[in-house]
Amino acid sequence: MAKVSFREQVLQAREDAIVESANRLLAEKGFDVMTVDEVAADVGIAKASLYKHFTSKEELAAAAMIRVLDRALAFIVTLDTTTRASAIEQLKAVARWTMQVQLAGEMPSLPAQNSALRAALVAHKVYLDRLMAVSERLGTWIAEAQRAGQLNPRLPPEVMLYTLFARACDPVLGLLKASGQHSDDEIIETLLSTCFDGLCGPDRRT
Amino acid sequence: MAKVSFREQVLQAREDAIVESANRLLAEKGFDVMTVDEVAADVGIAKASLYKHFTSKEELAAAAMIRVLDRALAFIVTLDTTTRASAIEQLKAVARWTMQVQLAGEMPSLPAQNSALRAALVAHKVYLDRLMAVSERLGTWIAEAQRAGQLNPRLPPEVMLYTLFARACDPVLGLLKASGQHSDDEIIETLLSTCFDGLCGPDRRT
DNA sequence: GTCTATAAGAGGATAGAC
DNA sequence: GTCTATCCTCTTATAGAC
Questions:
Q1: For residue B178, which of A128, A122, A69 has the smallest C-alpha distance?
Q2: Cα B115 to Cα B105: distance, rounded to the nearest angstrom
């Protein structure tokens, strides 16, 4: 019994290593350019071994997405239980977190255009489950912030949600990072400002 | 002389057809998923013929980008000469135009992560020339709007510029379109609002 | 410059030994 | 479940006739 459990732990650890490598490579090169060979080489195993864990490249990408969604959910739960900030502050904290993940090269931004990948994801029950879990959490805060007038009440809540997801892999962050003229903190605060206050900024009289 | 000119016109027309097809397919599937075979089939010519016009897939993508940059430049020039609106209104008009192009399925959004493509683009003189031409035009309006307090003076101008380019291929537009719950005009005005006024909206007291 | 045909190679996925 | 070796399809790019 204990022996089996140990063996399972080893397998789980290997699977985690695979997903972590895939996660990083997806963040770096994107789904279409990343190859399964690269992932296997990065982990240090044979490609055939990888295919014993994940039956396809799409399945591997889904696992990476689930991983980051789980991390997001854990962060959200921690926020919810440890802080007593307003809804808008919670949302900004989540946005800040996603940008930090992106700066760390750990945000697997999948191309929205690859239809084969999309088809695999919308049919993936676990992935959809995690995605909805995160969406519901954020949706609660969004509704609360709109009621409080902290978020524009005239915008549909889904626009808020989609925008937050989109900003989690906004290419602007990579461009600013590549320009090398700003610190990570400056980049994050700047993008937080453009996301929540817009290009016009918060100081207005109209 | 006239005969040669006519023949050149025919060649130019064919080249335009190739670039137009590539443009549409790039908007639909993205650079990595689009194949040269598809483009050739869409135009109705053999692949080898296409390679007589464009020496590589990257060159084809660059031509598509140059095409849309030229259209943008033409729109900007028209704006500049026919209207007497404020700088911020001009910038919003350009953003509105890019979203219309995106909704029409004519915005070739190239993946920021494909390094082979990036290398080809940064080495492409004509492409860089057009990109800088558009950037300079927008940069003038950005500086003017910042001086007038219409755009947040505390944000670096490059952030404004990068953000405008990024919103021209923002996946949020595709998500809202796919949800089918909004008209094209609603989508555009909503995204204009989130871009310039942020998720918090323009009505603030702070 | 356009075509048919094909080279050349990358990449996803699998067979079969251990 | 892990390995080596291989299959097979797809894709970029070119050769050579017309």
A1: A122
A2: 24
Encoded tokens for A47 = 């490609």
A46 touches strand D (CB under 7 A): yes
B25-56 pLDDT tens trace: 999 999 999 999 999 999 999 999 999 999 99
With DSSP H G I counted as helix, E B as strand and the rest as coil, what are the percentages for chain A, rounded to 5? 75, 0, 25
Residue B23 and residue B1: Cα distance in Å, rounded?
Answer: 32
Do the chains contact at B153 and A193, CB–CB below 8 Å?
no
Instruction: Flag whether the pTM goes above 0.85.
Output: yes
Helix axes A57-82, A36-43, angle to 10 degrees: 60
Q: What is the pLDDT of residues A60-105, one digit of tens each?
A: 999 999 999 999 999 999 999 999 999 999 999 999 999 999 999 9
Q: CA B193 to CA B188: how far, in whole Å?
A: 9
Q: How far is A45 from chain B (nearest CA, A)?
A: 25
DSSP class of residue A202 equals: S
